[in-house]
Write a structure and sequence with these properties.
This protein has 10 helices and 10 strands. Strand 4 and strand 5 form a beta hairpin. The protein is an alpha+beta fold and about 350 residues long. It is about 45% helix and about 20% strand. Helix 1 packs parallel to helix 5.
Length: about 350
């Protein structure tokens, strides 16, 4: 081949490679922009799980997040996001940075590599190759982004990782910011004593849940739980003991509920629960389990209380077609009727559940 032809061929190869890299850079830039412009943690998670996987034709995308104090899991529950549906797992211990070269470079290679496969413990699929991207903030690994392909040559050990490094850095910032933003939001919606939601959060959610139930023609139940003779506990044992009782009660109630149910401290010794997508009998059974669990709780025996802890409960179900002009008016009426049911429980001797029609 003539030297001029060889030169042309080499130039064409350089141009093709440059064009390929330019297209690749543009795709990564677009993806970074999607991460950065995500609105809130839920939107970011959906972009990672859906858009990123589709945009780069990946067969698997998952997140491993360090969550030693269960804070992130609590945030996801408050957003009603099921981690497993978005391939999110958690580590309760820090990730060893020595797994990654220089503590920050991705691991690339065969899916059968033990170091790589350990990040896919909960996945039963088999892939050809994978990459583990460390999500680093400062000197701390906050998690990893785990991506896999059925193509054994997609991620090769020793390949350049410049684009992946940059993507991991951007994503780590976005995840940290989104989580911190959700924490700040929750601070104003959490009762500091019991760690459950407060009245403000409950009032927002009740409107939303009623609106959803009306549109989807689903069941919804509201219960108000009020501790009996709680003032006697504070008067005889002190407010510190009273606080311990409230903390234990909130924990007991939560154990009887699903992740999708809403529990809040309404004020003082009063709690409220919203249960959606359940019929009246099921909601009543939940209320009774809560009521029965209180006097039987062994921890209360250690507090030398003047009487067993018990609660009166008022329960009202939202009918399928309530007569009202707005969601706000339905909300007010449902609360009023549940409160009337609670008052009947008190009148009839306390420590019982009363159901009242809407």
């Amino acid at each position: 081949m003539h030297s001029t032809d060889k030169l042309r061929k080499t130039l064409r190869a350089y141009v093709s490679n440059a064009q390929h890299n330019e297209e690749k850079l543009q795709r990564f830039n677009r993806q970074e922009l999607e991460f950065i412009t995500s609105i809130g943690l839920q939107d970011l998670i959906e972009v990672i799980h859906n858009n990123y996987r589709q945009n780069f034709r990946l067969d698997h995308v998952s997140l491993l997040l360090v969550d030693e104090d269960h804070e992130i899991r609590h945030i996801l529950r408050s957003l009603q996001l099921q981690a497993e549906l978005f391939s999110i797992s958690f580590s309760e211990t820090p990730i060893d940075p020595s797994l990654f070269s220089q503590g920050e470079l991705p691991i690339l290679g065969s899916f059968n590599n033990d170091a790589i496969r350990s990040f896919f413990n909960n996945n039963k699929e088999t892939f050809g190759s994978a990459a583990i991207l460390p999500l680093k903030r400062g000197e701390q690994l906050i998690g990893t982004l785990n991506i896999a392909s059925k193509d054994a040559n997609r991620f090769i050990t020793g390949a350049a990782t410049d684009f992946l490094n940059r993507l991991a850095c951007i994503l780590a910032v976005c995840i940290e910011n989104a989580i911190n933003h959700e924490k700040i939001k929750l601070l104003g919606l959490i009762d500091p004593l019991t760690g459950i939601h407060n009245r403000r959060y409950f009032e927002q959610r009740l409107n939303e849940e009623i609106d959803n139930s009306l549109r989807q023609n689903d069941n919804l139940g509201l219960m108000i739980i009020d501790l009996d003779f709680f003032k006697a506990i504070n008067d005889n044992c002190g407010h510190l003991t009273g606080d311990l009782v409230l903390q234990e009660v909130s924990s007991l109630i939560r154990r009887q509920l699903r992740l999708s149910d809403v529990l809040a401290r309404y004020g003082g010794e009063e709690f409220v629960v919203i249960i959606s997508k359940s019929d009246a009998r099921t909601v009543y059974e939940v209320a009774e389990r809560i009521r029965i669990s209180l006097p039987e709780h062994a921890e209360f025996n250690k507090l030398n209380l003047p009487q067993p802890v018990s609660a009166s409960i008022g329960l009202c179900m939202l009918p399928q077609n309530p007569i009202a002009s707005s969601v706000n008016s339905i909300t007010k009426h449902l609360l009023k009727r549940a409160d009337e049911a609670l008052y009947k429980s008190k009148q009839q001797g306390r420590n019982q559940t009363t159901v009242i029609n809407y």
